[in-house]
């Protein structure tokens, strides 16, 4: 259960992230955190679906990882968060420690495609995609393989970066057995159900 105090701490952390990012011209230096309403949406989806094996592609500073881990904690699950760079790993680790969630999360510095290809078929209940959007179409075959029937995939930035997300969205919509919809929450959450 999310307590009001935890929600307030998460909002304060997000505000500090917005202050951090506002004057940075290089995108690679920004923490690029999901909004609190998007975080709550992720939490709700994980809790409602009972997801226990959760994968995040795109750790960055670990803010969304906190939301995933809070839901995983209640569902007695675990989170594996992948990033191809460790620029903000220390920030993510500190945040997980501050919220007493480090024991629920495995942070991996690895290319997502490499990690997914080594995973057996069908064990992932929930996958959150918030990384280099140009890589998503190449990841789709591996994501389809590792996501269990009834599993959920959520992609951030569907509305804030429509041109960058369009190839992936079109690819998903052309694939039988997947039900997808975009929700105007945060920067736009594209939610995909593996309906097999």
TrEMBL record:
<dbReference type="InterPro" id="IPR029063">
    <property type="entry name" value="SAM-dependent_MTases_sf"/>
</dbReference>
<dbReference type="GO" id="GO:0032259">
    <property type="term" value="P:methylation"/>
</dbReference>
<dbReference type="Pfam" id="PF01596">
    <property type="entry name" value="Methyltransf_3"/>
</dbReference>
<dbReference type="InterPro" id="IPR002935">
    <property type="entry name" value="SAM_O-MeTrfase"/>
</dbReference>
<dbReference type="GO" id="GO:0008171">
    <property type="term" value="F:O-methyltransferase activity"/>
</dbReference>
<protein>
    <submittedName>
        <fullName>Putative O-methyltransferase YrrM</fullName>
    </submittedName>
</protein>
<keyword id="KW-0949">S-adenosyl-L-methionine</keyword>
<keyword id="KW-0489">Methyltransferase</keyword>
<keyword id="KW-0808">Transferase</keyword>
């Amino acid at each position: 259960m999310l307590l009001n105090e935890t929600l307030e701490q998460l909002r304060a952390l997000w505000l500090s992230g917005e202050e951090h990012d506002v004057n940075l011209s290089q995108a690679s230096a920004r923490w690029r955190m999901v909004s609190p309403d998007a975080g709550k949406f992720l939490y709700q989806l994980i809790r409602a679906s009972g997801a226990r094996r959760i994968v995040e592609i795109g750790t960055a500073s670990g803010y969304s990882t906190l939301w995933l881990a809070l839901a995983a904690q209640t569902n007695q699950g675990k989170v594996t968060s992948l990033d191809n760079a460790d620029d903000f790993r220390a920030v993510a680790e500190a945040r997980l420690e501050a919220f007493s969630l480090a024991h629920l999360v495995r942070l991996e510095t690895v290319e997502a495609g490499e990690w997914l290809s080594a995973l057996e078929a069908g064990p992932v209940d929930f996958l959150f995609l918030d990384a280099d959007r140009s890589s998503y179409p190449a990841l789709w075959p591996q994501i389809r393989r590792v996501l269990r029937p009834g599993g959920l995939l959520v992609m951030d930035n569907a509305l804030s970066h429509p041109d960058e997300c369009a190839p992936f969205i079109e690819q998903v919509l052309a694939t039988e057995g997947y039900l997808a919809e975009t929700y105007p929450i945060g920067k736009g959450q594209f939610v995909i159900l593996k309906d097999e």
